[in-house]
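Tokens in:
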């Protein structure tokens, strides 16, 4: 889905920017279907989880918790 989503990059990637803003507004914690239809939550973006980016078959670099969000 990531590769297909990247094909709709016209108009300075306006559709993906809209989808990402909508995803962040409706699911701020990024727990509902992360990566579905190529739309990743903010904390996963740019960490290598997308298919077709970098080495295939390699998982992303994981998540770094936001400052102050870790609760024991």
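Residues out:
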């Amino acid at each position: 889905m990531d590769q297909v989503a990247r094909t709709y990059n016209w108009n300075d990637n306006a559709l993906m920017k809209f989808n990402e803003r909508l995803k962040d507004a409706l699911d701020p914690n990024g727990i509902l279907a992360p990566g579905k239809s190529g739309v990743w939550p903010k904390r996963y973006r740019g960490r290598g989880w997308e298919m077709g980016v970098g080495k295939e078959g390699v998982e992303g670099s994981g998540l770094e918790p936001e400052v102050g969000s870790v609760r024991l």
